[in-house]
Design a protein that fits this description.
Layout lengths: L1 H9 L4 E6 L7 H8 L11 E2 L10 E4 L2 H6 L8 E4 L12 H24 L6 E5 L3
Parallel strand pairs: 1-2, 1-5, 3-4, 3-5
Length: 132
């Protein structure tokens, strides 16, 4: 979702990549709650983190504590940011209850992305490892 918001809100100001410490499939709940606000993430997928080793990024943003702990160092002057979000995939309950968890996270991520952009963080490369 963070990748989708950065792409949507910043346009071509960033080249955005996302990866997972344990990459998996894109959660349909994430696609659905983002579609509700006209952000299409259906073509995104979680790439393996090691695919990006050795590459230079202006920003590396981890979105969960596990990603922060496992995130490797990247070369160059990379600004590492950590946005600690809970993984909504662990939500229990009915479909509606799980969607509510995804919506709450979606709104938190959107708020954090907007703060990030409001702080003047514009650069050609941003990278968001993590699973949410």
């Amino acid at each position: 979702m963070a990748e989708g918001f950065l792409r949507h809100e910043a346009g071509d100001q960033f080249e955005v990549f996302s990866a997972g410490t344990e990459p998996g499939t894109l959660r349909p709940e994430a696609v659905q709650v983002m579609r509700e606000i006209a952000v299409d993430i259906s073509s995104q997928w979680s790439k393996p983190l090691d695919r990006f080793l050795g590459q230079r990024f202006d920003y590396v943003i981890t979105v969960c504590d596990k990603a922060r702990e496992q995130c490797p160092a990247f070369p160059g002057e990379t600004l590492h940011l950590h946005w600690p979000f809970n993984d909504p995939a662990s939500a229990d309950g009915s479909s509606d209850q799980r969607l509510a968890v995804f919506r709450k996270l979606r709104d938190k991520i959107h708020s954090r992305v907007m703060v990030f952009l409001g702080e003047g963080h514009y650069a050609p490369g941003a990278f968001c490892p993590g699973n949410p």
